[in-house]
Structure prediction request, 712 residues.
Amino acid sequence: MWSDNDLTGTLGIKYPIIQAGMAGGPTTPELVAAVSNAGGLGTLGAGYMAPEAIRRAVRSIRSLTSKPFGVNLFIPENPHEDQMKIEQMTEELNRYRDDLHIQVPESVQFTGQPFEDQLNVLIEEKVPVFSFTFGNPSHHVMSMLKEHNVKVIGTATTVREAKQLEKNDIDIVVGQGSEAGGHRGTFIGSFEDALVGSMALIPQLVDAIDIPVVASGGIMDGRGIVASMALGASGVQMGTAFLACSESGTHPKHKEALHSSTDESTVLTRAFSGKPARGIKNEFIVEMEAGNAEFPDYPIQNALTGDVRKAAKAQNKSEYMSLWAGQASRLSRNLPATELLERLVDESGQVLENLN
Amino acid sequence: MWSDNDLTGTLGIKYPIIQAGMAGGPTTPELVAAVSNAGGLGTLGAGYMAPEAIRRAVRSIRSLTSKPFGVNLFIPENPHEDQMKIEQMTEELNRYRDDLHIQVPESVQFTGQPFEDQLNVLIEEKVPVFSFTFGNPSHHVMSMLKEHNVKVIGTATTVREAKQLEKNDIDIVVGQGSEAGGHRGTFIGSFEDALVGSMALIPQLVDAIDIPVVASGGIMDGRGIVASMALGASGVQMGTAFLACSESGTHPKHKEALHSSTDESTVLTRAFSGKPARGIKNEFIVEMEAGNAEFPDYPIQNALTGDVRKAAKAQNKSEYMSLWAGQASRLSRNLPATELLERLVDESGQVLENLN
Prediction:
């Protein structure tokens, strides 16, 4: 199962295991480098990072590994700036600010980081792999990436999306099953219609496109890896499994929440960012979903909740943090990434042996 | 992979493949017997059948096979007879009656078939395997089944439910992933919290209980079977895959809908029965979900829509039928069940070989 395939060959890695590029802090240079050094593909989740911060992180990764690694960015969106919604939400969030003893911010920057500038850093720093979510890059961007021999990984939640990525000359498609933690990558149609479980999604993706399919969503150990390969995937992308690693920048309270979670703990919500994402249900989600204020579009809502989430982290208040997690988060293990990789490989071998 | 395991041993079957006991017509005695004769476990979906109809069907199955087979029943519920909801829904349904040129029924029988009488037929006819959904049988029922050496299969959508089934001395647990077609088996907590994808659900069930776990939800071919076994399941239960078989009583328009479906076609709805179930989105679902009338409890809503569904079938109007389907329905194949079983076994062998 570990012999070279279309995925490991394309990426120049030993094991077909990609550590997901989770934005917001968990993917430290130490985590990314450890995964790549152990034979997988580490990925910096740089969607929310300023261009120069990406440059520093990439250089830091480079100082720790000579192996291939990736950087993940978000395809930018054009949100509708609904002033009424923004005002109501600001009001709604004030009760958390009161509770956290923080001031209402004087101004909030609604737009995300400048995508073209982020991308230029990747080109300048010769990042070997670029992965993205929330859409499909423009023809111009794809030409630039191809010209610089960057391998490109897109994210699809349906067959329609995967076909559109393939048409755009993407090298590899990550199929995001409904089990996955964090943001839904859906960019065509409604996210509800695109909540397809991995068991159903992966074989349909494999049948529909000719480029390598990487399974993601609910994969936590050797069982999930072998299952994904059986479904026809060329490899796996694991997010939640790496959240709990010692090198990850995940907040300790978030790690605790993963370990004490059950299969019923997670929920899909727009409360944190305006875009549907899966996380462990907490006070913030329950109250915001029940509240009267409508969520402004992503990334406006993300900007509006930024100070609350930051203060919640600083004050160890997990009830107001975004505790992103997939549906098998209870299987997460607090291990150094190198050891986790080794175990994943050993377990997969064991699972395969038991099947024979 | 096909050597005797805890599932095949307990049930006395050759291959760990169970044909789901889908109620409402698809599981003809011919289908059930063909699956059992081919080495799987055929199951009569008898939830909506009168006791004497079950007896006739069981005798018919017996005349076609000497192999073990199962009968599936519903654990009865105590619905709230909300007269206001019932009147509004009756009114709401009249537009379909107009369109189908049928009369408003003079009276509707709200209660389901008598469970104890159904069960007594199973005992009297010495049915070897009893499977159920929507709960957990009483201690009295379990004692009776055990006394008559009936093997008992329960359905769980969460770890909590599986543990409760194990505690009740159930022999085998079917883990129903969120991909599955038809009714959600959830009987503890909210069905939304219990929508766990197979990739995440199965390993957690296997870790939590000591009795055999059977994977279900989105499994359509050898890829899904090997994936399920890799996740730790002792076997699989397949519903949608058998819906399209030549022997199944599935309406031809329903089979057509399966074949032309995509990964985005299905939706969860209470519109047909009052209980959440996954089917292909059609006019009836869209209109009823958008309508003003609230759905009465299951099985009251099932009784109220009965004449509409029946007339829709008679008149080939698939827009008003319940087109139950899992999230991989596009992978269904219109084959005789014997041939499907053979292909599933061959494919699984091939998948396993490719993994090595």
About this structure: Chain A touches chain B through 49 residues (CB under 8 Å). The longest helix of chain A spans residues 337-355. The two ends of chain A are 13 Å apart (CA to CA).
